[in-house]
């Protein structure tokens, strides 16, 4: 996957379609409302917390986008971009017991973004690290790496000349390898986050 | 003004989403087993002396990891252990005459089995095939189903009576399944190791090995992955670790007569690397040996290893 993305970046860098002027930086504040790890015996560890992300989008086309309400032009004004994202999640297990478990996830993702007017759709592949700490009667630490596949969609609207604001829904899924977790088998990881997003263009739109 | 309307609208939408989804998926959460170290080796001790009764957990290096249950105030004497599920095990609580389920996730210990016919809980054993549990009573062995219900629920009919054929239970302490799936029991009271065929509904006596020829009072018992039975005897200065065949016969002394290290060995357990842990009741410690009897180290010795009665090892969440 890394090599494919590297190749895409090289191709796009040589493309006439590239327009760094319409590339942008995106910042997000997230509410991870349903993060779940499936234990080997199919019980579920669930988490809530806070998330932050920063995403650089390298534009592959320079259409200016569609004004709000002008839906007929949305699809004729599609824009595409390559994304490089940093994500951080600070989570707490919602389990009610005498042991408290916290979890921090951080890492990168690379992928593609499609904009059509206010619509926002992206997909990416991540390289994440997680650390869980249990404390209470029982204490323990678990650290592992995983590679989530991420999808995100939502709406963003212009705010001023260089900004857009909006909200998106993000969904990620991954397999946590037993070689990483020390558990007896590979297990599933799922993540749902509502993001409050702000986009900053590098020049006036 | 229009800009601010957008901003307020977006933030309001986000706030609505957060409030709407807040709490979704909260119900029924458990802890992540990886964070509990369930995939790693955990060593559980039951300890009881005049002032302290507890169940504690250590890692594979003998480092203290947590207090799982404290009976010092509530009363109860923790004795034998048995596997229950990936993060829970059963503990026989003498004095309270009951079996409790204790989990690594910090939930309170819960009553799992109690029956008026059983008054002297001691050693426990999980039967992987049927998921039932055997419990040593004073001079019999009782059977419980997956829900902790005695089989049969009423009546003074134990699963294994004091005498079956040539096998007589006498102050039984520990039981294991040998490599052939037979039930092996130590009986310090008559210095015998009794072996039962439990493949049929009614257990039958396979053999009764006289251990008095080797030493007195076979107390601790381990069915090792190498196919042998390991036994510790505890009386008449015969503080000895033995290796015997799957019926407890042909015993060979592996470590003996050094009471500064091994004194009143009460429990045996096998580490994932094959080494053997022995609780040394008399020295308030747990000692690690190789299978040839070579002393590896004092595995643990602290305030929680006073009079360790049983050892339970979790070496992965699927350990039966």
Q: Give the total of domains of chain A.
A: 1
Total of DSSP H or I helical runs spanning 4+ residues of chain B: 2
Q: What is the H-and-E element order of chain A?
A: HEEEEEEEEHE
- Contiguous low-pLDDT stretches of chain A (5 residues minimum) are 5-21, 65-69
From the spread of the alpha carbons, the general shape of chain B counts as: globular
Give, in order, the helices and strands of chain B: HHEEEEEEEEEEEEEEEEEEEEEEEEE
Q: In angstroms, what is the radius of gyration of chain B?
A: 23 Å
Largest sheet of chain B: 4 strands, antiparallel
In short:
The complex is a heterodimer of chains A (205) and B (320). Chain A is mainly beta.
What does this structure look like?
The complex is a heterodimer of chains A (205) and B (320). Chain A has two helices and nine strands; from the N terminus they run αββββββββαβ. Chain A is mainly β and 205 residues long. The longest helix of chain A has 12 residues, at 2-13. Chain A has helices spanning 2-13, 178-181, and strands at residues 24-38, 44-59, 79-93, 100-116, 119-135, 140-146, 149-159, 163-176, 187-201. Chain A is 8% helix and 62% strand. In chain A, strand 3 (79-93) and strand 4 form a beta hairpin. Residues 5-21 and 65-69 of chain A have low confidence and may be disordered. The N and C termini of chain B lie far apart (68 Å).
Ordered list of secondary-structure elements with their pairings:
The complex is a heterodimer of chains A (205) and B (320).
Chain A: H1 2-13, E1 24-38, E2 44-59, E3 79-93, E4 100-116, E5 119-135, E6 140-146, E7 149-159, E8 163-176, H2 178-181, E9 187-201
Antiparallel strand pairs in A: 1-2, 1-9, 2-3, 3-4, 4-5, 5-6, 5-7, 7-8, 8-9
Chain B: H1 2-21, H2 33-36, E1 42-48, E2 53-59, E3 64-70, E4 77-85, E5 88-94, E6 98-103, E7 110-113, E8 124-127, E9 132-136, E10 141-144, E11 163-164, E12 167-168, E13 175-177, E14 183-187, E15 192-197, E16 204-210, E17 216-223, E18 229-235, E19 240-244, E20 252-256, E21 265-270, E22 276-280, E23 285-289, E24 295-300, E25 308-314
Antiparallel strand pairs in B: 1-2, 1-25, 2-3, 4-5, 5-6, 6-7, 8-9, 9-10, 11-12, 13-14, 14-15, 15-16, 17-18, 18-19, 19-20, 21-22, 22-23, 23-24
